[in-house]
Amino acid sequence: MTILILEWSNPLNKSCAIHFSCVSQLFIFCSVMLHLSQDVEALRGELCRKDEECREQERRLAALEQQVQERTGVIVQLQQQLEEAAQRRQELQLLRDGEETLSRQAALPLQVKYVTKTVEVESAQSKQALIEAQAHNQALQEQLSVQRQLLRELEQQLHESQRSSSQLRQQILVYEGEMERAQGQLEAEMQSLEEEKNRVIEEAFIRAESEMKAVHENLAGVRMNLLTLQPALRTLTCDYNCLKRQVQDFPYMLEKAITEAKQEICQVIGEVSSANQELLRKYKREMNLRKKCHNELVRLKGNIRVLCRVRPVCAGETDAADTKNKVTFDPDDDAVLYLSNKGKLMTFELDKVFPTQATQEEVFQEVQSLVTSCIDGFNVCIFAYGQTGSGKTYTMEGVPEDPGINQRALRLLFSAVSEKKPDWDYKITVSMVEIYNETLRNLLGDNPNEKLDIKMCPDGSGQLYVPGLTEFTVESVEDINKVFDLGHMNRATACTNLNEHSSRSHALLIVTVAGFNSSTGHRTSGKLNLVDLAGSERITKSGAEGSRLREAQCINKSLSALGDVINALRSKHSHVPFRNSRLTYLLQDSLSGDSKTLMMVQVSPLESNVSESVCSLKFAQRVRSVEIGPSSSSRRQAESSSTSSSPTHDGVEVQRHKHTHPQRLGLFRRKNQSNLRDVGYSLLSNMK
Ligand code: ADP
Ligand code: MG
Fold this sequence. Notes:
Layout: E1 4-9, E2 15-20, H1 23-107, H2 124-300, E3 304-310, H3 320-324, E4 327-330, E5 333-341, E6 344-349, E7 352-354, H4 360-373, E8 380-385, H5 392-396, E9 398-399, E10 402-403, H6 405-419, E11 424-436, E12 439-442, E13 451-452, E14 455-456, E15 464-465, E16 472-473, H7 477-493, H8 498-503, E17 506-517, E18 523-532, H9 546-570, H10 582-586, H11 588-591, E19 596-603, H12 610-625, H13 632-639, H14 662-687
Parallel strand pairs: 3-7, 3-19, 8-18, 8-19
Antiparallel strand pairs: 1-2, 4-5, 5-6, 9-10, 11-12, 11-16, 11-17, 12-13, 14-15, 17-18
The structure holds adenosine-5'-diphosphate (ADP) and magnesium ion.
């Protein structure tokens, strides 16, 4: 351990020595001494200031003394002048005395004591002498007055000098008094400063001593601490050495850890990518399953569904009260419709009946699952069937403020494909075609009179296509409206009476939805055919002739062909007569295979239309009752198997449910619904 000895002498000339056994004690002592030396320094500064003040006073004193000396010089000069003036006075006095003597002598009468010689008194010589004496006298007189004047001035100066010298003396006395007083003050201040200095030094010394004592005490504590800290220091050193070794090993360990981490990450990435592959595989499987389920659900509902919509009585038509009794609905079963015909109540059962108050939205909700299935690549046909004026165009096209299935379907497709983004990229294209008298017209082409042909694809796929058919890609409602406007315009330009013409021709809106999944590479293509059929009313063949007869034959042919095709498809006949009409030939792709068909049979509520309504409903009934496969609908057919003929448009047959009790039908239907539900659940559990 180091012992430090510090010696110094304080201002009281006391010799001091302190022994320090550790550096920290020395630090504390030094800080105390620093404190003291700062005090002494301050006192020294004060002393210097006082010395400076003393010197200033001395300087002032010297200046005063110099002034006194100067004043003394002036007094000496003045005294010299005074002496000179006195001398002059004496001289003047002498002159005065001479003058007086002269004047006295002049006043005395001339006495001749002795005449030694005879003089001529009034001789010229004496006269001359007298004149000269008088002139001399005159000059002396003048000199005397000048001297007197000078004397007076000198006396005045003397008085002033005496006065100023007495003033100066007084001032000197005042200065001397001030000086004495200042000196006295200075001495007293110096004395008090000296005393204060000594006192401060004394106090500082006492304080230093007491602090030293405290420092000594601290030192003892520190020593104790040091003793306890030494083992801790040893362990710290130990730890430090250990850490040092670890730090030396760190780069190697780090490298090792990085390599291990890399390996782990690679392994995890591999696992994740294989999991991703698995997920992708599952996703594809689920997508297929979903598609199958959807398809199955639609199939269970029947690949060919027949709905009926009864339009309301429009303003200006026959009495509403009368017409209401012709068409009635079952409040418990929305699949049943009653028609009063010639006093008999006919009952028709379809997949769903829309009453007069049904909105466009309600109708669309029933068909929207079919519409979306074309996103999954299915072909769909929706037909509006019925006599002219039954509401086919209203259901399909609607009115601008309340659009029908056509526009709603496209809107739904837009929103459905946008939901599938970004995985799927879809392109929606539309074409508009009219079939009139078995000829095809391109409604979106530049020339609306141009006739189109249906051809087989040369690639051997068996697919049909229409060369020259115009297609527009649509992405928004605005696009749809533009396309519809163009179609309507072209349809109108080719005929004289659009209303009549449109009721004698079929209008087709063909929507193609082509999708591509960039992550799986899947491609889909589905077609949605929205068909506003020509009026189904019968024309008395005998009455019609010429073009009217041809129109009637063509319409009859195509609607019958449609019934035959549907019949053949549902009966799974090996031959389906698609080629029997342009309509079925064009829609061949969309009617066969996995395709889905919906027939919307439009019925007018008017009494005058009852017989046509009966025909339409019978046609619908037949389309619906031709059933194949194990679906619930087939059971329904088995129960009422008396009819199996084709739903030929013209071949109207007696309605087989004519006497069926409505409630019984309702029960039957509910049973089918529960079957549907069961199948749906089983599909769902399969998916899980
Ligand atoms: P079609 O196309 O079968 O000849 P329309 O669709 O032209 O018949 O309908 C004939 C008339 O009945 C039109 O004035 C139409 O607006 C009206 N109409 C048809 N269905 C409805 C309905 N559901 N609600 C209101 N009016 C309808
Ligand atoms: Mg119409």
